[in-house]
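Tip: read the tokens left to right.
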């Protein structure tokens, strides 16, 4: 131990942690009737999973709702970095259904392996969100049946969600020195996308680079026989199909998106590649066309 001084110049005794006696456990300022308990949390999840509890220690819904009551606005984004069984997602949807808010949630969970019906914690959370959304929709349907004639029915809150996993880039590493390549390996770079990656994988890698949120609405349209993703209205038009010709690119340009993205290997031929940007200059000069 040693002596120090506080701000008033008085001696102050300091002790090492090993010398400090065991104290009492930390307790919450909220009572159980305000924030729930472990037992109430298990009842919450069992109500969704037909009496089963796929998660041992879920967070109480009452606690999550209490946090939302004191620390959220009706247009905020709520982050739960240790999602577990996704109690927070259910609480956010229920709160939106209650007050008509438009809160959004971002949940983060390592896909730890589990035993039983679900192979990972992430799968438990996904299923809980689905079941909680169905429960909320059923409750709203039931309440609307009780409305007086002419009364406006209660709308559904946004019950949708997306599941995104962290992975390496979808694109191959082309930053190699001449000594790291051979003439035979050059054919491997004809397509710069790694095997097994889907169109949606490519799209979701593009979105943050253009400042578009992952929650943006995605619509699929067929333009001249090719699938084109339109994101957040007209903010982005992206096509990753093979053999994309002038007709598809022309239709993309006529839609006048803010950004247009196409795979380098998607171009039907050299002429299409050479005229890609020219087509946008002709039909939509304000669009920013990109090739990946």
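Filled-in amino acids:
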């Amino acid at each position: 131990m040693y002596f120090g001084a506080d701000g008033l110049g008085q001696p102050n005794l300091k002790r090492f942690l090993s010398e400090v006696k065991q104290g009492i456990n930390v307790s919450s300022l909220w009572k159980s009737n305000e924030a729930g308990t472990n037992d109430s949390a298990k009842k919450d999840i069992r109500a969704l999973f037909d009496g089963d509890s796929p998660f041992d220690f879920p967070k109480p819904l009452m606690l999550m709702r209490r946090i939302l009551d004191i620390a959220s606005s009706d247009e905020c984004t709520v982050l739960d970095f240790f999602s577990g069984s996704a109690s927070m997602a259910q609480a956010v949807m229920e709160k939106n259904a209650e007050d008509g808010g438009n809160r959004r949630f971002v949940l983060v969970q390592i896909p730890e392996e589990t035993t039983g019906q679900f192979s990972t914690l992430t799968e438990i959370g996904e299923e809980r969100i689905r079941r909680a959304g169905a429960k909320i929709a059923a409750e709203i349907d039931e309440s609307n049946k009780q409305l007086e004639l002419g009364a406006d029915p209660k709308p559904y809150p946004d019950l949708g969600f997306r599941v995104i996993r962290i992975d390496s880039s979808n694109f191959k590493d082309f930053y190699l020195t001449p000594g790291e390549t051979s003439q035979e390996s050059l054919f491997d770079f004809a397509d710069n996308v790694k095997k097994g990656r889907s169109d949606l994988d490519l799209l979701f890698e593009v979105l943050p680079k253009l400042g578009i949120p992952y929650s943006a609405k995605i619509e699929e349209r067929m333009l001249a026989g090719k699938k084109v993703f339109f994101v957040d209205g007209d903010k982005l038009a992206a096509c990753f199909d093979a053999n994309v010709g002038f007709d598809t690119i022309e239709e993309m340009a006529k839609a006048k998106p803010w950004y247009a993205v196409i795979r380098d290997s998607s171009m039907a031929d050299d002429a299409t590649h050479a005229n890609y940007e020219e087509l946008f200059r002709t039909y939509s000069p304000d669009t920013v066309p990109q090739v990946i």
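Confidence is low (pLDDT under 50) at residues 1-7. The CA atoms of residues 144 and 150 lie 11 Å apart.
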